Amino acid sequence: MAIAAKQERRVIEGSMAVAEMVKRCRPHVVSAYPITPQTHIVEDISEFVADGEMQCEFINCESEFSAISICLGASATGSRVYTATSSQGLLLMTEVLFNVSGLRLPILLTCANRAVSSPLSIWNDQQDSIAMRDSGWMQFYGEDNQEVADLHLQAYKIAEDHRVLLPVMVCMDGFILTHAFEPVELPAQEDVDAFLPPYQAVAKLDPQQPITMGAFADPNYYMEIRWQLEYAMQQAPAVIEQVAAEFEQTFGRPGLHALESYRTEGAETIILGLGSMLSAIKDTVDELRAEGEPVGAIKLRWYRPFPRQQLIEALRGVKRVAVMEKDISLGMGGAVCADLRSALYDLDQRPAITGFVVGLGGRDITNRTVRACYERVQRGPGENIWVELDEDLLDPDMLRAWKQQWE
Amino acid sequence: MKIKIPIGAIAEPGSSVATKTGSWRTEKPEYTGEKPCTGCQSCVRACPEGAVTVEDKHFVVDLDFCKGCALCVAVCPIKGLSMEEEVR
User: Fold this and answer.
1) Which of A139, A215, A335, B59 has its C-alpha lying 20 to 30 A from B27's C-alpha?
2) How many domains does chain A have?
3) What is the per-residue pLDDT across A41-87, written as a single tens digit (0 to 9) for each?
4) pTM for the complete prediction?
5) Is B11 inside any structural domain?
């Protein structure tokens, strides 16, 4: 396939790769509040604006609540809008996140994934964005900085499609990706402009033609308006796949398909995960395959909408699935595992699905972590299994309860 | 009046008539008939929803919009109104 698009290949920080891609998407308004590990992204964007490289209003504010509120207002006037945050910042935005989706404003937010307090941690896990799963925002997760940068470009095109009109969160692991220097191919401005035309709002705030957005809805209307939102989420998969295919044709890199399957041919066990942990998972799959183990990996790029149909297809005939995730819905287990089990429940034949909680608060996920999960599922199913706790830090009762998960 | 809901539930001016506040009500005001209405219009002025009219000394309430707040009952100088339980 001949790819006509020109690309510039540079070794840059993940945050800079995102900033460079956002610049090419030509947002009219950027408003954000600094929070580790997201800060570099908007620092880079503010420099672009100050240097005249970006024609955009960069609005400083006093909190994340203000940032997303400014974004909401700006998007309601028909502007393309961008923001970024992490952890406590995302949680502080919560109320407005639900308003943004309800108003059908296609704002793009980068979540530099970070653990949430308490205890205070600036390190990576995915608890922040996973906790926002019911907010009506689409959520996409990237494995490396090239993929994360590419997700931003595709995300705007999907979000602004009139069949969708939902806000979108692109999730990238804090520090592991945001602060890592990698070679990244950046598309030329004219190719981005051709791929992503200007945003056309269906309605916008205009003093000459007054309208009310987010009006009061009594019980006779509320459910229908919420159904509109759910219907849009149900329409989104077809639009996302279409945009992903167009992206691949234009730029020659993998598009935003729901899943990436890695060495899944003949696999009896699948290890499934989101984000940067896939590099350790793929590496371990290579090791295990070399030892003759029938194992493969699946990368989940979408979390909302949840790609139920694609997962049913991809897991047909598989005996065991190990879900590795960096979040915990306390009192139930990992959220992704629960969703996967729910998605496959109605099938006559389905794999045994075991959920592993890994890498919270920046605990490294190594090949040894992945191998522990693989070996555990060979011994039988389990749920809500925590991986690589330090035995010296647990009192005897807690240690016993944890060790029982591994029998 | 019902309005079709555009994407994002955007409302044009004047669309609040589509919000049927009557669905909030558990009791409705009724003229008891025990004492003759004087036609003083106190109930009309008290109604926060503009749901009450008095024509020819005859109390009329628009139940699509009456929230059942009972202000009309409270202000009636002859105590000619009362709240009645409704069953759905």
Assistant:
1) A215
2) 2
3) 999 999 999 999 999 999 999 999 999 999 999 999 999 999 999 99
4) 0.92
5) no
